[in-house]
UniProtKB/TrEMBL annotation, chain A:
Recorded GO MF terms: transition metal ion binding
Name under which the protein is recorded: Ferrous iron transport protein A
Naturally occurring in which organism (per UniProt): Bifidobacterium italicum
InterPro entries for the chain: Fe-transptr_FeoA-like (IPR007167), FeoA_core_dom (IPR038157), Transcriptional_repressor_C (IPR008988)
Database matches in Gene3D superfamilies: 2.30.30.90
Annotated ranges, domain Ferrous iron transporter FeoA-like: 7-78
Keyword Acetylation: no
Keywords: Iron
From TrEMBL, chain B:
Residue numbers binding GTP: G63, N64, P65, N66, V67, G68, K69, S70, D109, T110, P111, G112
Keyword Ligase: no
Protein name, per record: Ferrous iron transport protein B
Top-level lineage group: Bacteria
Length: 81, 693
């Protein structure tokens, strides 16, 4: 895997478990992400690619749509196990 | 309570007017802030029911967006629900009185929110209502609507609400969908996991469980337990941000504990909704599907509604007039010639028919909106169009009302209610009138054929291009001047699973919305039409005839006003009373502008279509007038007139709907904005084009 670019929700493979490592948005929106259930350590799966880099992530039975810019600011790593 | 107490208020509380503190605060706050990690206990140890103004317990409904909260609320209240603006805002709240065992409760539905730490005015209204910072005091009971398909996030939100320490009942929605995903939640089990907080399974689409929910509300007004692991907070003496943010981890831990007690694990698998989304959210097919859907909605509100509108305008009007004539015939032989008969037929009947003609497009729009909302697609539409609308700082859902506006502005205004942010709702509501509706097309056609014959098609096309440019420019202007706090926000939205809408709930919702429209718009439409009738009925001079018997409209007060207004349009090239009278009539409805022109020239256009009218005697009369008023630059004046028609107030019904949906102030601002933009546009166009046309 090319490690020169950080793995993000935008560029990570579909349908694979990923753990969020960081969310690089401003503070108030980072907290909103947290309230949506997206925070460091959360295991998610990208289940759909939409236009302009938009992504739908799955967390259990929940589905959360993110615009491309936001998706590119959530860094992830393959989830253990 | 001393004034010192208010000085201690921090966070959101400090920004708000000091709320009333009556006797019930004694039991609200006496143990505020006390840690409660050890035992579940009644957190709302009220000795009896608190009463607010009017003596009614106040029940506030709150929940995340798209969880079926409003459907549930409407299923409970039906036609008794009343939509209103939260005080001092354009945020919509629903309220209504519910009678349970002879006791009246005040039910309030708040905008959907993910948090009590608001990011928008709508979320702020929800947070204030549930915390009691809205000036009405803390609610007597909070109904928290919990989506079974998004249970972990819903539990986090529930934890925040429970920490407020008010009696709380959980309404569990979407459990059927959760069951399909293999994640059904047993209400009794969830209630046990919540240490006794009552949980009632409901289905807002069918109303199932609504009665049981209200029974649970009645049974728990005296208090509900605070579950283990949550700490009660006193909103009067806490920094809201510090409380919400500081306790987030603990709430997630608590939610994880509840899920463990429910024996629920992340049941992660590909769902039917995921499969549908592979098409509807696909980068290419998603946009195509969205545009096709928009085309379908546009066609339905115009083509499909057209025949029904014609039937109401023709046949129903005929029946009503015949009925009125029959009633007047009973009163006596001369009664049908009286001014009162004229008032009833040309004022009241005209008003009723005008409202009636808007019922088909509005009804179709309401049906389609309900289908889009209930099916779960609207949230996807916001996502699909997010990037395109972001350039205007607007939500992706703003695309829908603007497109619909090109059919008819009225259902387009109805569609603005799908926007969750009230500022965007008002901004789009003020942009919709610049969408060139089909009624304006008749004016363009007649003038285009009258002045440009061979290039008529191109001129009409340019009008539509101007409409689009106008929406973009006015949108940018309004964002810079009036809506400076509307800016693109990161898009992060929970997508509800797709559902099949329920017919009964749909019909109920459509009828309620239609009734709301008729009730809200009828007063202003009928009263304005009566005023118009009055102006045309009053003779301007002794030789002009008698009251309601003025043969030439130019001899009425209406004609005098048109004469006085006409010079205003000299810089736009149409300082002509025929034109100003037509524009005044056009304020009521653009459909009657051409008829008003024909009437003012005393030309009977009979069954001529727009092309025949433009190329015939009406067109000739208009060319003569415009050439005279513009110094032989009639074509430039005609373009200016069309641009004015494009940009100023679409119709009286639109003003009534703006007033109903937002406020009188916003309706007036919209009218003013339209007139100013229309005038500037007409003057600039004429002064420029007269050098070449």
């Amino acid at each position: 895997m090319d490690t020169s670019y950080p793995l993000t929700v935008e560029n990570c493979p579909l349908d694979e478990d990923m753990a969020i490592t960081a969310i690089d948005v401003d503070e108030r929106h980072r907290f909103r992400m947290l309230e949506l259930g997206l925070r460091a350590g959360t295991v998610i799966r990208v289940v759909q690619r939409a236009n302009f880099g938009g992504r739908v992530v799955a967390r259990g039975t929940e589905r959360i749509a993110l615009d491309g810019r936001t998706a590119s600011r959530i860094t992830v790593a393959p989830a253990a196990g | 309570m001393t004034s010192d107490h208010y000085d201690h208020r921090r966070g959101l509380a400090a920004l708000l007017p000091a709320r009333r503190h009556d006797d019930h605060d004694d039991h609200d706050g006496h143990d505020a802030g006390a840690a409660n990690h050890h035992a579940a206990r009644p957190c709302c140890d009220v000795g009896g029911r608190r009463v607010h103004d009017g003596g009614m317990p106040r029940i506030v409904f709150i929940g995340n967006p798209n969880v079926g909260k409003s459907s549930l609320f409407n299923a409970i209240l039906g036609a008794r629900a009343r939509v209103m603006n939260a005080p001092g805002t354009t945020v919509l709240l629903e309220e209504g009185v519910y009678v349970h065992d002879g006791v009246r409760w005040d039910l309030i539905d708040t905008p959907g929110t993910y948090s009590l730490l608001p990011l928008s005015p709508d979320e702020e209204v929800a947070a204030k209502a549930v915390t009691g910072m809205d000036g009405d005091g803390a609610p007597d009971l909070i109904v928290t609507v919990v989506d079974a398909t998004n249970i972990s996030r819903a539990l986090y939100f529930l934890a925040t609400v429970l920490e407020l320490g008010r009696p709380t009942v959980v309404a569990l929605t979407m459990n059927d969908l959760a069951a399909r995903q293999g994640a059904r939640i047993e209400p009794a089990q969830l209630s046990r996991a919540l240490d006794g907080v009552p949980v009632v399974e409901v289905d807002g689409r069918t109303g199932a469980g609504a009665g049981a929910l209200m029974d649970a509300v009645g049974a728990h007004l005296s208090g509900t337990p605070l579950p283990h692991g949550l700490t009660r907070v006193d909103v009067d003496d806490v920094d809201l941000r510090a409380w919400v943010e500081g306790g987030a981890d603990a709430r997630f831990d608590w939610a994880a504990g509840v899920l463990a007690r429910l024996d629920m694990h992340a049941r992660d698998r590909v769902t039917v909704s995921d499969r549908i989304d592979r098409v509807l959210l696909n980068p290419v097919f998603g946009v195509i599907a969205f545009l096709l859907l928009m085309l379908g909605v546009f066609e339905a509100t115009t083509t499909l509604a057209g025949p029904a509108q014609d039937w109401i305008d023709g046949t129903v009007r005929g029946w009503l007039v015949a009925g009125v004539d029959r009633l007047f015939a009973i009163a006596g032989p001369g009664a049908a010639d009286s001014w009162f008969h004229s008032l009833v037929v040309d004022g009241l009947v005209d008003g009723v028919v005008t409202i009636g003609t808007f019922i088909p497009p509005m009804g179709i729009m309401f049906i389609l909106l309900s289908l889009l909302e209930d099916s779960g697609y609207l949230a996807r539409a916001a996502f699909v169009m997010d990037r395109a609308m972001r350039c205007m700082g607007l939500d992706g859902r703003a695309f829908l009302p603007i497109v619909i506006g090109f059919g008819c502005n009225l259902p387009a205004l109805a569609a603005t209610r799908t926007l969750p942010d009230s500022r965007q709702r008002v901004l789009v509501g003020m942009l919709v009138p610049f969408s060139s509706c089909t009624a304006r097309l008749s004016v363009y056609l007649v003038l285009a054929y009258a002045f440009f014959r061979e290039q008529a098609g191109l001129v009409v096309f340019m009008m539509y291009m101007c409409s689009i440019v106008l929406i973009l420019l006015v949108g940018i202007l309004l964002r810079r001047v009036r809506f400076t706090d509307v800016r693109p926000e990161p898009f992060a939205m929970s997508l509800p699973p797709y559902q099949v809408p329920r017919i009964v709930a749909l019909v109920r919702s459509v009828l309620m919305r239609l009734w709301g429209f008729v009730r809200g718009a009828s007063t202003i439409i009928i009263s304005m039409l009566v005023v118009m009738w009055l102006l045309q009925a009053i003779p301007a001079g002794a030789a002009a005839g008698s009251f309601a018997k003025v043969d030439d409209v130019h001899d009425s007060v209406y004609g005098v006003v048109a004469d006085r207004v006409a010079p205003v349009f000299a810089p736009a090239g149409f300082d002509d009373w025929h034109a100003s009278a037509a524009l005044m009539t056009g304020f009521v409805a653009k459909e009657v502008v051409v008829a008003s022109m024909a009437q003012s020239y005393s030309i009977d256009t009979g069954d001529e279509d727009e092309q025949q009218q433009g190329e015939g005697s009406l067109g000739a009369a208009m060319r003569a007038s415009f050439d005279e008023s513009s110094g032989d630059h009639g074509r430039a004046a005609a373009i200016a007139f069309m641009l004015f028609t494009l940009a100023y107030t679409p119709c009286l019904a639109t003003v009534a709907e703006l007033r109903r949906q937002y406020s009188t102030r916003i309706a007036m601002q919209s009218v003013g904005l339209g007139l100013v933009v229309a005038y500037i546009l007409a003057v600039v166009a004429f002064q420029t084009l007269r050098w070449v046309l």
